[in-house]
Amino acid sequence: xxxxxxxxxxxxxxxxxxxxxxxxxxxxxxxxxxxxxxxxxxxxxxxxxxxxxxxxxxxxxxxxxxxxxxxxxxxxxxxxxxxxxxxxxxxxxxxxxxxxxxxxxxxxxxxxxxxxxxxxxxxxxxxxxxxxxxxxxxxxxxxxxxxxxxxxxxxxxxxxxxxxxxxxxxxxxxxxxxxxxxxxxxxxxxxxxxxxxxxxxxxxxxxxx
Amino acid sequence: xxxxxxxxxxxxxxxxxxxxxxxxxxxxxxxxxxxxxxxxxxxxxxxxxxxxxxxxxxxxxxxxxxxxxxxxxxxxxxxxxxxxxxxxxxxxxxxxxxxxxxxxxxxxxxxxxxxxxxxxxxxxxxxxxxxxxxxxxxxxxxxxxxxxxxxxxxxxxxxxxxxxxxxxxxxxxxxxxxxxxxxxxxxxxxxxxxxxxxxxxxxxxxxxxxxxxxxxxxxxxxxxxxxxxxxxxxxxxxxxxxxxxxxxxxxxxxxxxxxxxxxxxxxxxxxxxxxxxxxxxxxxxxxxxxxxxxxxxxxxxxxxxxxxxxxxxxxxxxxxxxxxxxxxxxxxxxxxxxxxxxxxxxxxxxxxxxxxxxxxxxxxxxxxxxxxxxxxxxxxxxxxxxxxxxxxxxxxxxxxxxxxxxxxxxxxxxxxxxxxxxxxxxxxxxxxxxxxxxxxxxxxxxxxxxxxxxxxxxxxxxxxxxxxxxxxxxxxxxxxxxxxxxxxxxxxxxxxxxxxxxxxxxxxxxxxxxxxxxxxxxxxxxxxxxxxxxxxxxxxxxxxxxxxxxxxxxxxxxxxxxxxxxxxxxxxxxxxxxxxxxxxxxxxxxxxxxxxxxxxxxxxxxxxxxx
Lengths: 209, 611
Description:
The complex is a heterodimer of chains A (209) and B (611). Chain A is an all-alpha fold and 209 residues long. Chain A contains 7 helices and no strands. Chain A has helices spanning 4-14, 74-86, 89-93, 116-125, 140-152, 162-167, 177-187. Chain A starts with a helix and ends in a 22-residue tail after the last helix. The relative contact order of chain A is 0.16. Chain B has a 5-stranded mixed beta sheet with strand order 1-32-33-34-35, with no helix packed on it. In chain B, strands 2-38-37-36 form a 4-stranded antiparallel beta sheet, with no helix packed on it. The longest helix of chain B has 12 residues, at 5-16. Chain B is globular. The interface between A and B is medium-sized, with 26 and 25 residues.
């Protein structure tokens, strides 16, 4: 019902936080203020997945590597494409998502990392060069469906590939054999990564004699 | 300071090529059109983007002629390091050149009295980078202005700034709009006396369009006129006398829209102002209507895709003419209006010449708004012409897009010509323009208004029109509505045009060719490949050495990116190129630096130089 859509979606501009159900919502959807990819980990530390590399050489597991909870469900792809048009994503990023006013979403190049969770965060939080923040407007499930649609276009990184995304590695990237040696040698400069529920340690101040 | 030989010889060279001698084979004017060159700035300077109020972009300099232009070579260059599209023209006021780079809109003053034109000062306004994601067509700046010792320009994030031209310090900054809501500013401000006129961008973002006048010295806003809405907002009052009946009536800026859609109706004024000091009227166009899905907004959608004649003191509208009422293809009405006095059908009339996005070239009586000529200058399939009796286009019904149905139509959204301005030569009486030969496959999708996001709905791919060339440079007779000659270009041509008294006209291509053309015959006399595509406006000036230079920015971007998948399409660039005959200038040659090897022998102490 395309004609109903414009009027319905005009509500978006006047009822941002009222908690009213949007016309396209199902019974299970609820908009959440500040929705992000399950930012709070189970220990309650409250620190969300980082946007950049983590100093001290910690390898990040957990939330940034989480899979899209909607998986590859066909309904999610259809919803995602519909929302990609309805929320005007296509007008900025192109009807084929190859870019325009906003960047190309199909080319494995991501300013803010390209795992499903990282892309979720960019949509939910917005980004400084004009990407709007949708987390207060769209329920989490709808944002995940948009992510699912983008994943189907082939330009995102796989879940679990957060560091690869930060480090510029795609699946075709070879790894030089000496790389592992360098990592081992430099890892000995720092304590091993603490369990997730502990505080982040500062790196040791230098080589031990 | 030491000057190289060639600069010392320059005055002798100039004495021989005195501007008082008539040029060889001086052209016979085809139209006998004339122009007023007010404010009559010094001939060797360039104080505003269009050089004069009439927007002729014509320079009286004639050291560079059809005979010697093939000797043009690079004299010096300046890179601002910014990779967004470069669209503006440098200004030269006195002995200083002023340029503003695209976002983040850093301004530079270059000292032309010193070799290499070093930077005198730079000013960093630090605009909000949110604006980058709200600009439809690249983070560009289309020009800057100079008035009362101040450089005045718009930041992409909706602030207008004035900078002290001597010191580079900010004098005032005023907030004109809200970038969060999807509004940006890209246009070149236009100075009339103590007022500077500015307008917004946002035709694709559902932002209501406007023009405003600011006080040059304080930045204070004096008035603002909108493109849609009740008469009070559009500044339509008792002195409004449009020529055509369908433009007369109360609050047409509301009644020609469904419901309240005029509030998101766009009509942004992101293009060029021109001004007639005798009539005290300025002329400014408005953009396409929003949303870009016409089926959602039945009605004439006034006053989008329109040229307004407004009183320069009060902003009150005197007349208006809508080029494409109920525009269905994104044919903005913002292109420049060149003011000339033109003999037409036995009478000399004050007209404006306007090559519109809709592929029609209009000659309009600028006193009354009557359309005298409206002929296609580029390939178009959307209409069967403009009915001169009614002033209305005859739209082909099969060319009206319906949502979800693919349609091929020419010209595309960016038109038969976009904002890139044409020039007028009073010597040939002709208008010269770079135009497009492009068509689009269009599918409309119904859209909703979400503030801060596009209110758009046009899914398009573009391809060249008949002949396969994307671009064309041509000479146009505004009295007869006929093309005299043309030069087809494989790549898009989206540069401004420079006309000169040497009877040379200049233009550039999107693949980086800068060309000099015989203004009479259309013969290409000289070409030079630059580092990136050219979408800026060439200009010319006299240096302190009294030599004529031609300057143009290279740096592709903007709407030229619709052709970016062409093989050989250039990467981005950020370089200003300055040319002179033989490349002579104080910026190159021997003797520009004192070294030991050139110092008196008493200074030499190194044993390597021998006994």
